[in-house]
Amino acid sequence: QKEVEQNSGPLSVPEGAIASLNCTYSDRGSQSFFWYRQYSGKSPELIMFIYSNGDKEDGRFTAQLNKASQYVSLLIRDSQPSDSATYLCAVNIGQTDKLIFGTGTRLQVFP
Amino acid sequence: DAGVIQSPRHEVTEMGQEVTLRCKPISGHNSLFWYRQTMMRGLELLIYFNNNVPIDDSGMPEDRFSAKMPNASFSTLKIQPSEPRDSAVYFCASSLAPNGNTIYFGEGSWLTVV
């Protein structure tokens, strides 16, 4: 089992819709969870991080964490074509600084 | 403040040659990470340092790969000898530990081995 798993997509949504991206992880001791966005040919950039169970909102983005189910998700409201990118889920393994990434989900927002 | 700086940005080399990638982390950060990204395997952690000390090198693919961090502001990743399967984007990233802090990526070094 991979340490961090994501559906590779592509996930296609119309402009203005909600995009839902999901991620599962294997290490129950993990404490910190991150979502990064990567445009083609660019480096990953942080969108959000979440440490506690529940929801965390930042503008059009909401991260959701369920440690019991070892599940973290990212919702993008009012999706825009500029949101088209690969979204990477990242998890600190145990209580270390080791940050492991999923393979990413490619999101396509069409006009 | 300057971000993570990597060099070279692009390198094309012949199989068997030595390749050295360089990284300058964000000033004040005490953790440094080397990742490799390919279409097939995604973003893989090769090695990370904390306070210039290698903490976990379990992701280093084989003995051809080595990494050093002689001081807080400089790190190298060396491949010797290089092989075509090493072709990838190599990212350096840094963070301010302890665990749970955001890591910030450099722009990457695009390596092609022919």
Keywords summarizing the entry:
heterodimer; A: 111 residues; mainly beta; six-stranded mixed sheet; five-stranded antiparallel sheet; 53% strand; B: 114 residues; seven-stranded mixed sheet
Can you lay out the helices and strands and say which pair or pack?
The complex is a heterodimer of chains A (111) and B (114).
Chain A: E1 4-5, E2 11-14, E3 19-25, E4 33-38, E5 45-50, E6 54-58, E7 61-66, E8 71-76, E9 85-92, E10 99-101, E11 105-110
Parallel strand pairs in A: 2-11
Antiparallel strand pairs in A: 1-3, 3-8, 4-5, 4-9, 6-7, 7-8, 9-10, 9-11
Chain B: E1 5-7, E2 10-13, E3 19-24, E4 31-38, E5 42-50, E6 53-56, E7 65-71, E8 74-79, E9 88-95, E10 104-105, E11 109-113
Parallel strand pairs in B: 2-11
Antiparallel strand pairs in B: 1-3, 3-8, 4-5, 4-9, 5-6, 7-8, 9-10, 9-11
Describe this structure as you would to a colleague.
- Chain A has strands spanning 4-5, 11-14, 19-25, 33-38, 45-50, 54-58, 61-66, 71-76, 85-92, 99-101, 105-110.
- Chain A is mostly beta strands and 111 residues long.
- In chain A, β9 (85-92) and β10 (99-101) form a beta hairpin.
- Chain A is globular and about 40 Å long.
- The mean pLDDT of chain A is 93.
- Chain B has 114 residues and is an all-beta fold.
- In chain B, the strands form two sheets. In chain B, strands 2, 4, 5, 6, 9, 10 and 11 form a seven-stranded mixed beta sheet that branches. A four-stranded antiparallel beta sheet of chain B has the order 1-3-8-7, with no helix packed on it.
- In chain B, a hairpin with a 2-residue loop joins β7 and β8 (74-79).
- The chains are: A mainly beta (111), B mainly beta (114).
- At the A-B interface, β5 and β10 of A face β4, β5 and β10 of B.
